[in-house]
């Protein structure tokens, strides 16, 4: 309930999420996970796995970006990155670099192909 006594509705502020896990001291900084990083599951969900983490493991049988996972789970990216950090730490997912953008072909080559097609 809000301060005015009204219940929260879908038109109200964003819901807040908390993902907590006792990580203890970490000897090295976690691997950076970017919005376009590709995530691939390396394990199946085990009994007792948090529902959100289990969903990530099921949906990432094929590479999905962090942005896609966030959209499918309807969770903020910041929450998804925390979920992924735990899965990464346990070795249950793998992070891959995004596929680099393809280079555009040489404009002269395109022009030659167009002329060749026009001459057919």
Automatic annotation (TrEMBL):
Residues 1-32 are annotated as: Disordered. This is DUF742 domain-containing protein. InterPro entries: DUF742. It holds the Pfam family DUF742. PANTHER family: DUF742 DOMAIN-CONTAINING PROTEIN (PTHR36221). Residues 7-24 have a biased composition (Basic and acidic residues). Signal peptide: none annotated.
